[in-house]
Amino acid sequence: MFPVPRINDSRDVACNVATLKSWQPSASFELIKLRADTLKQIRSFFDKNQVLEVDTPTLSSASVPDPFIESFQTRYIPLTQTMQTEQYYLHTSPEFAMKRLLASGSGSIYQISKVFRQGESGRRHNPEFTLLEWYRDGWDHHQLMLEVSQLFTLLLSPCVELAAPQFITYEQAFQAVLGINPHTVDKTDLLACVAKAGLANVLDDNEHRDRFLELLFSHTIEPSLGKKRGKKRDKTNNMPGICFLYHYPASQASLAKTGMHNGQLIAQRFEVFIDGMELGNGFYELNDAGEQRARFEADNHSRKLMGNNEVPLDENFLQAVGHLPECAGVAIGIERLLMVMSQSQHINDVIAFPFERA
């Protein structure tokens, strides 16, 4: 085990960062070492479990059409006039290329890569960040949740006292906090719930119901996920735990399969939270090429309605989807994991040179 520096007072952190010169790193060398040791442990974990490390391109000729994710764009300018200048995108995830490997017969794989997303800067966001993404050939999302729990327990146990992992459905979370069924609640009752939560006028009433569900989730449910009250005799007031939320509405399936649960069509996907912060997003991967194309086209249509540019679809990926084996995949934010491990209050504390110092 390695020593873990603990940062308990965010005011001290802010003061220390403020005194640094612009050329100096915002992360301490203790936390830089923590990152290195964590990546070493991750690689050891997958080596022992016979999961192959792969490397895929950061630049792509296509982009993700998700209306709420915006890619960085760049141009390839050839040195000769025999080729035209071409538009490229920095990837927001290595998912598409990794699935092309899976479709080609790679078996279970993982990758640790830098990814880039526009507009994501703040206490928990940096436009450039590190993703750990892995895919398990022949698994579903329930099996993958267990492996995520195993990896997190391995990495976090030396650093943080953890409560037992929790596995709850999206519906159970909404029922427990808001008393509504997110799969069946009508728009009128949903808007009334939004108003009761003090979130009226944040969105236009004509927005899709999923937008209101996401608003309620982020403000009233997410902050409590992965937080668990300690026993009275415990010295700590709260003991964080690993919380898995699964069975999202089918309309939020993204690249996941859908299925039936308790008479409702649901997305076979999950997200994992610790201490009120999302650390990862996993799918039982869709392998229907026609359905995936339809979803991408719908996403591009949504982008157009929102006034954003449509993006070229990744045809190589779409051709591969139909050859994708039954598999489950997950992407974990390394910086957020390090924030939990070190009890840091800001993502800049675990990045040597964040966006403002790059």
In short:
The chain has helices at residues 10-18, 29-48, 95-103, 141-156, 170-178, 187-196, 209-221, 289-305, 315-321, 334-342, and strands at residues 52-53, 59-60, 72-76, 86-90, 109-116, 128-137, 163-169, 241-249, 258-261, 264-274, 277-284, 327-333.
Description:
The model is unreliable at 1-15 and 232-237 (pLDDT under 50). Strands 1, 5, 6, 7, 8, 9, 10, 11 and 12 form a 9-stranded mixed sheet that branches. A 3-stranded antiparallel sheet has the order 2-4-3, with no helix packed on it. It has 10 helices and 12 strands. It folds into 2 domains: 1-162 and 288-358, 2-Layer Sandwich (BirA Bifunctional Protein, domain 2), CATH 3.30.930.10; 170-239 and 241-274, no CATH class. Strand 10 (264-274) and strand 11 form a beta hairpin. With 358 residues, it is of the alpha+beta class.
Task: Detail the topology: elements first, then pairings.
Blueprint lengths: L9 H9 L10 H20 L3 E2 L5 E2 L11 E5 L9 E5 L4 H9 L5 E8 L11 E10 L3 H16 L6 E7 H9 L8 H10 L12 H13 L19 E9 L8 E4 L2 E11 L2 E8 L4 H17 L9 H7 L5 E7 H9 L16
Parallel strand pairs: 1-5, 7-8
Antiparallel strand pairs: 2-4, 3-4, 5-6, 6-12, 8-10, 9-10, 10-11, 11-12
Helix share, percent? 25-40%
Shape: globular
> What's the number of structural domains?
2
Order of helices and strands: HHEEEEHEEHEHHHEEEEHHEH
Largest sheet: 9 strands, mixed
The level-1 CATH class of the largest domain: Alpha Beta
The amount of beta strand, in percent, is 15-25%
Average pLDDT score: 91
Q: Please give the radius of gyration in angstroms.
A: 21 Å
CATH superfamily of the largest domain: Bira Bifunctional Protein, Domain 2
Give me the number of helical elements: 10
> Quaternary state, please?
single chain
Structural class: alpha+beta
CATH topology of the largest domain: BirA Bifunctional Protein, domain 2
> What is the CATH-assigned architecture of the largest domain?
2-Layer Sandwich
Total number of beta strands = 12
Low-confidence stretches: 1-15, 232-237
Euclidean distance between termini CA atoms: 32 Å
